[in-house]
Design a protein that fits this description.
Blueprint (H helix, E strand, L loop, with lengths): L1 E5 L11 E5 L9 E10 L2 H8 L10 E2 L3 E5 L5 E4 L2 E3 L7 E3 L11 E5 L3 E3 L6 H5 L1 H15 L7 E4 L5 H12 L3 E5 L3 H10 L2 E3 L9 E6 L3 H9 L1 E9 L12 H6 L3 E4 L5 H14 L5 E6 L3 H10 L5 E5 L3
Parallel strand pairs: 11-12, 11-14, 12-13, 14-15, 15-16, 17-18
Antiparallel strand pairs: 1-2, 1-4, 3-5, 3-9, 3-18, 5-6, 6-10, 7-8
Helix pairs in contact: 3-4, 3-8
The protein binds NADP nicotinamide-adenine-dinucleotide phosphate.
The site of NADP nicotinamide-adenine-dinucleotide phosphate has 32 residues, from helix 1, helix 3, helix 4 and helix 6.
Length: about 325
């Protein structure tokens, strides 16, 4: 079967170690099933893997990809929950493509317990955008950020997959949403979604109750300064650098909560899909590539000139 894999690690030229070609069919441990992939989506996680972050050399080559929707051997249409119990990992879990082969393949092996019926109202492409970026945004807003208690939200670096998801979800929940982007074109797209688009570091008209932070060092100080008393600053990533300075006086004086977030649970993914259907909202998709153009899709993601998800259609 065809698959896209990391064959080495390259911190500076991640695309140079991406290979697309024939690989063996997936092995099926007891209780696992091979899902025929219909659609997948890329995440920054795949670029980290090509750079060798979280993917040591002894696990290479590794099929990339965390996200997919597809069809089981019985013909059921499913979305794959990508967090797998993993006794070999100190976290007790790993994402598909970290220790077990990922979703950027014609077929992917997953535990049956990780399969969720795909709602009829969501296309395979829409569903394939949800399991990592959108689930993380949902967890950051709802579970960690307790957004139900909030009236306003700030989302940093709003072009990214997690960030566009957070913007759309927070708006659907009736919140005032401020979002930063370095790029004027992306700020126009954020405004078209209904958020208030601002330049990075700009003073907001009010302090916010929840901050969605996936950029890291370049935006973190702004995130702290924009937080209202008692606000939750929820961090899931650090694309721009993971070492930031924390003003501890502000942290305690404003009674801020600084919270980490990794993915979400399977019930949260089910709740997210229900929410999309109920509110009739769909993932923001930047672009769709056929699987034969997966290298172009990676190059586009790496360019940073992306607004929303980069998706892969396996039927083309
Ligand atoms: N913890 C988890 O479970 C989890 C899950 C998903 C993702 N993540 C992490 O979250 C991060 C975002 O993931 P993603 O898939 O949404 O990535 P992405 O789609 O590639 O988003 C990157 C965004 O970050 C902003 N950005 C990047 N470098 C920047 C810099 N130097 N200064 C300011 N802004 C910068 C950009 O915003 P603008 O161009 O608009 O300014 C860009 O749109 C990644 O680090 C990823 O590993 C973690």
């Amino acid at each position: 079967m065809r698959a896209a894999s990391a064959i080495a690690a390259s911190p500076d030229k991640p695309l140079s170690v991406l290979t697309v070609g024939e690989v063996a069919e997936p092995e099926l441990p007891e209780g696992w099933v091979a899902v025929e992939v219909r659609a997948a989506s890329l995440n920054h996680h795949d670029l980290w893997s090509l750079r060798g972050v979280g993917l040591p050399g002894d696990r290479l080559p590794m099929i990339l990809g965390c996200d997919a929707a597809g069809v089981t051997p019985e013909g059921d249409e499913v979305v794959i929950y990508p967090v797998v119990a993993d006794s070999g990992d100190p976290r007790g879990m790993s994402l598909l493509s970290e220790r077990f082969p990922g979703t950027l393949a014609e077929r992917v092996a997953v535990p049956r317990d990780n399969l969720i019926p795909k709602p009829a109202g969501l296309s395979f492409l829409d569903a394939a955008c949800l399991p990592t970026a959108w689930l993380t945004a949902y967890n950051m807003l709802v579970t960690r950020g307790r957004v139900d208690l909030a009236s306003s939200v700030l989302v940093q670096g709003a072009g990214g997959g997690v960030a566009t998801a957070a913007v759309v979800l927070a708006l659907a929940m009736g919140k005032t949403v401020y979002a930063t982007s370095r790029d004027p074109g992306k700020r126009a797209k954020i405004a078209a979604l209904g958020a208030v688009a601002v330049e990075p570091g700009a003073r907001l008209p009010e302090r916010v109750d929840v901050v969605i932070e996936s950029v890291g060092q370049p935006t973190f100080d702004h995130s702290m300064k924009c937080a209202a008393p008692g606000a939750r600053i929820v961090v899931c990533g650090a694309t721009g650098g993971h070492l930031a300075t924390v003003d501890l006086r502000r942290l305690f004086a404003m009674r801020l909560e600084l919270l980490g977030s990794v993915m979400g649970t399977l019930p949260e993914l089910e709740a997210l899909m229900d929410l999309l259907v109920e509110k009739d909202i769909r993932p923001v998709i930047d672009s769709i590539y056929g699987f034969s153009a997966v290298a172009d899709a990676f190059a586009h993601l790496e360019s940073g000139d992306v607004f929303g998800k980069v998706a892969l259609d396996f039927l083309h």
